Amino acid sequence: MCIKINEILAERHLPLLLRTSDGGPLKKEGFEAYRAELLSLLAQEVYGTAPAAPAEVRVSEQKCRPKEFAGKATVRELTLSFDTERGEFSFPVTEVRPNGVPKKCPMFVVLNFRPDIPDKYLPMEEILDAGCGVLRIYYNDVALDGDDGFAGGIAAMYDRERYTWGKLRMWAFAASRALDYLLKTDYVDRKRIAVAGHSRLGKTALLAAAFDTRFSLACVNNSGCSGAALSRGKEGERVRDITKRFPYWFCENYKKYADHEADMPFDQHFLIAAVAPRRVAVGAALEDIWADTDAQYLACCAASPAFELLGKKGFIHPDRLPQPGDFFSAGQITFHLREGTHFFSRADWHCYLSLI
Ligand code: GCU
User: Fold this and answer.
1) Each residue's pLDDT tens digit, 159-176
2) Ligand 1 pocket test: which of 121, 290, 292 has the largest number of ligand atoms within 8 Å of its C-beta?
3) Protein residue closest via CA to atom 13 of ligand 1
4) End-to-end Cα distance, the chain
5) Is the Cβ–Cβ distance between 199 and 220 less than 8 Å?
6) What is the reported pLDDT for 2?
7) For the purposes of burial, counting CB atoms within 10 Å of the CB of 44, is it exposed (0-12), middle (13-18) or buried (19 or more)?
8) Alpha helices in the chain (DSSP H)
9) pTM of the full predicted structure?
């Protein structure tokens, strides 16, 4: 028997999207205010509140190698700095941009687990051959991925009483500062700046694009729990697991939903909806049971009405669960499912490169 997607979604009892405060249907004109409400709810309950963007981001160049990758690219080691409540904060980034591209190039702000370029998650030559550049952030340079009591990195630069942000939000904040810098250059296509990441950094990429409308695309790879996957009815990792093992990724409030997902006044389709009408690309892997492929697909289905309200194609998909080899890319939400394990693979990159 073929179960319809709407029937599966109905069984998850998701909080309804696109409702006004009195429960009525939202109109297109009300979306911006509604989006702000979604973000404030998600900040309050899951990711924490963050400081406002600094007035300016300063850049200094440490090194420039103009003929890397067989002469195809210029690689620059940069330091980005900005003022915080407690003085200047700086973090290093690497910029790789294609040489000899006559027009402005699209860029990926890539949050990564290692500072290396290329990297097993970052097939640099393929990205360059597609005419795109990369601004790489090594996430531990911004905030340590560990329980340091929020005593180091960017966490130490702001009052913990004032801002409840967890590490995911801190890394997302850094992605926005990288974007501040890119928008000041004259070689970047301002309308085509994506943010990309895998796993915990896939959650971060989605968060960054939800909060920062200047990103045109979020590449959300194998993000799973608290990323692009619905929490209600989720297999593999649950809110209880993630808040126990990685409490510092979130604000304190999120813990109360461990084993109480049904009480959440939101689910992860709200986060995807907050990117509307811009593009969200969700990538899943068949053997990534911990992230739950179907839960990620269903979140895309459930977020689609937000994009449709704004006159865009939302998530265009057949009325069935995903199969390996699927790549649904006709709408503003795209989804692909590849064979294999939890990994940021070239197959994933090829999908994202076709979307930027
Ligand atoms: C753990 C965690 C996931 C996360 C992953 C990763 O498995 O439970 O939520 O996505 O690490 O970042 O690699």
Assistant:
1) 999 999 999 999 999 999
2) 290
3) 199
4) 38
5) no
6) 66
7) middle
8) 5-12, 31-42, 124-129, 167-184, 200-211, 239-245, 268-273, 293-309, 346-353
9) 0.98
